[in-house]
Amino acid sequence: MITRREFSLAMGVAAVAATSAAACSSTPPAAPPTSAGRTSFPALKQVDAGLLNVGYAEDGPADGPPVILLHGWPYDIYSYVDVAPVLAATGYRVIVPYLRGFGTTHFLSDKTFRNGQQAALAADIVAFMDALKIPQAVIGGFDWGARTACVIAALWPQRCKALVSVSGYLIVNLASSLKPLAPQAELGWWYQYDAVDRQLAGMPPITVPAITIASDFDGPAKDGSAYRQLFTGRYDHRVLDGIGHDVPQEAPQEFANAIFDVAKY
User: Fold this and answer.
1) pTM over 0.85
2) Mapping DSSP to helix (H, G, I), strand (E, B) and coil, where does residue 120 land?
């Protein structure tokens, strides 16, 4: 599984730094104010996709331009409960899946090997898009969800129209992740998982249009300079002061605005 320690390392050492469905290419109008305080989604669904039966929330018209929003750990789909209606109100089809190991998403077979490799989580979402017959979508995420979104943008750019990633470029370089941090930093990331991900060891650039969002959680790396060179398409970086790591929940309107803006790139 991908760890916060690996994120901290990648950021700290500065080693690391869709079209929409064909029938839905129009740009929706400006967003209305967020419906802060919402606690549920209009619909919760299940679908078989690849190795998984995926649980997901959906909001907005079924024929709208698709937006897929990915949560992190220890969060879940409800981090987007205020973002989804803002996007749906302007005509987007908003889809928020539970990642493997979360909520109602489960493996179809007890014999399937369980792992949390960054490429595996990304492959899950590509299979999920196939199951829903979504050729391309705007993809946004934070925490592990941002890493998953980055991997899709890097390895399957044809499936990602545009990207919104909290904390920037989160693809992990395995070799670098084996180097210890300073003791104080290691103390902050006390839980560990293995991450063997050869495909992504070369830190591939992200070529799709992208907006990255930094917050106080990112500390000295919040200016984005550590990963700027890894985004080679149209790009913008935004800093939200006074905001923690769960940006969609803490600043839903700002996150939604990033989706609106990147979809126009």
Assistant:
1) no
2) helix
